[in-house]
Amino acid sequence: MPGHHTRTHDATATVTVTAERTSADRDTWVTTGRAARELCLKRSEFDLAVRLGRIRTARDDCGGGRRVARAEIERLRAGPGFPETLRRSVRAVGTTEGAALMEVPKTRFTRLARLGLLVPVSFRLNRYRAVVWLYPAEELGLFRADGRNAQLLTGRTPESLRSRLDAGLDLRPRNWRARHLGHLLRQADDPWARAGAVASLLDPLHVSQVVEDLCDRSHLGRFREQPPAHGAPGSPAAHLARDLMTARDPDEIAWLQADLARLTQEARDHRPAPRPAPRRPGPAPRTPRAAEPARGKLRGLLGRWRRWRR
């Protein structure tokens, strides 16, 4: 039948176009695992490169996580000194190795980090659940090479800085959060996702103080990022990771709340949060009919009336 053949032809054409599009996507995009192999990076090095903004990724529209453009891989492979240069740029070191790299005692290295002069890029928890901060080795080398930092590396720590350290100052968690937020914002490709990135660093109570509408807040919660995985969900290690990701200082909270208010308004203007459908009015309640007098009672009244008439 002509109609049947037409429908078959249309379905075949659709399948062909879809297959061609899938094949083109394979040629244009690769998974993060394959990208790491082609860039001669360990998975941890690849993840750190993404966190530092060295490698650009994009969301997979098919729900398969992140992916990397073939052009991005070719750009990195064409760089001078590949792959050694790329691997050096994403090397992260702890306090001991970092102090050796900068040729300073570990105590001085820790003081510089607590003062916020050295910014961690990630952290891990050791077997005692103590936080081990990791720093980009390349940044440490640049800090040491800068002549303006010579006094901080070899001389006596200024009194103004020592007094802040004595008061318990430690900017490592806050600086890590700021760097992590930059990573989340680079990954966000939607106004609600950008607002969710900022909300990820705030306690739910502080979010509710800014985003008062329940529907907006519920929709925003879909885009809140979880802390980097440490331990099983609900474990002490996971709670510690959540605590490190949550802003604590009043000025940091106020800054994040101001950003969240602005980004949430931009997200509303772009696409309002979904709201529940209005409830349809139900049928009007039936009016109960007046109760009829019982037959026995009616007969009794009628009999008394007849006797009275007699």
TrEMBL record:
Regions of compositional bias (Pro residues) in chain numbering: 274-286
One Pfam family linked to the record: DUF6397
Composition bias type Low complexity, residue spans: 287-302
Region of interest (Disordered), ranges: 266-302
InterPro entries in the record: DUF6397 (IPR045652)
Descriptive protein name: DUF6397 family protein
Organism listed in the record: Streptomyces marokkonensis
